[in-house]
Write a structure and sequence with these properties.
By secondary structure, the chain is an alpha+beta fold. Helix content is 32%, strand content 20%.
Length: 280
């Protein structure tokens, strides 16, 4: 065995090489020994080579784990993709309107089965891909179950979702539209609030938030109560909008005015609106 070796006796045969550890190895298959922190290799010629141990350098390589984001928002659209997946459109507070794939969400018992449905509001954990997001998990705070079970209320809600899909854009500040949508859906679930009034408030406020409201003019020939209601909708924060009621004649005139504004500003036919017209 190579023990009690004086390194000064082998200065003429010394060379330094990187090594993996500090073990002494004989190339002819003999045993191993340890000499402090250095490795001594006993060659067949009997020459000792004094080596420093290898200094291992860490390399940070990609582990394949993608960065994820947690966004607060609501599902405004969902469509099937393939046999078990869905493509959902989210209206989020942080990044506006974005699309994401919910893989396996159509499988029975999948954890994304309920969160990937329209009206689901909460926090969504998404992984950013090259061209789209993938939904990994979700913590839903409001499914709006009462709205899903109400035939008329559900179509009102779908109409609101379609308007949000029409107006909102990706990577845009859509906080106002998100608040308006959430409060409008809550109003639809309230039995004491008129669905038609919730619709007219949502339509007019959406146009106002997107800068397309033309304002009130004398040629509109509105009743004073109706003009006051429109001005109130325009100036009141979203959180306090759904706290009033109007008389039947004001509601009817407000509906005619709102429909006229929407026809002038929105160049799209909404599928749910056609059904709502028959319901009303």
């Amino acid at each position: 065995m190579c023990t009690n070796i004086n390194s000064q006796e082998f200065d003429s045969h010394m060379r330094y090489r990187k090594g993996r550890d500090s073990r002494c190895t004989r190339m002819d298959g003999a045993g191993l020994c340890r000499q402090d922190r250095y490795t001594i290799i006993w060659l067949t010629r009997g020459i000792l080579i004094w080596k420093k141990p290898r200094v291992r350098q860490e390399r940070y390589m990609s582990t394949g784990i993608q960065d994820f984001v947690i966004l607060t928002g609501i599902v405004i659209k969902a469509e099937p993709i393939g046999e078990y997946d869905k493509r959902v459109v989210l209206l989020t507070k942080e990044r506006g309107k974005i699309s994401a794939f919910a893989k396996g969400s159509r499988r029975p018992g999948n954890r994304l089965m309920a969160p990937a449905n329209p009206f689901s509001f909460g926090q969504f954990k998404l992984y950013a891909g090259r061209n789209s997001y993938s939904m990994s998990d979700a913590e839903i705070t409001n499914y709006f179950e009462d709205l899903r079970q109400d035939f008329a209320g559900a179509y009102y809600g779908m109409y609101f979702l379609e308007i949000c899909d029409y107006y909102t854009r990706e990577n845009n500040d859509e906080t106002g539209m998100l608040k308006l949508l959430y409060q409008s859906l809550r109003a639809l679930t309230s039995p004491s609030f008129e669905n038609r009034l919730a619709r007219y408030i949502f339509e007019l406020k959406s146009v106002m938030l997107n800068g397309e409201f033309p304002g009130l003019h004398a040629e509109d020939r509105l009743m004073e109560s109706t003009a006051y209601t429109i001005d109130y909708i325009m100036r009141t924060p979203v959180e306090k909008l759904f706290s009033f009621h109007v008389k039947t004649e004001v509601l009817e005139e407000l509906g005619r005015y709102s429909r006229d504004i929407c026809q002038r500003t929105m160049d799209r036919n909404f599928k749910s609106l056609e059904i709502l017209e028959n319901i009303d």
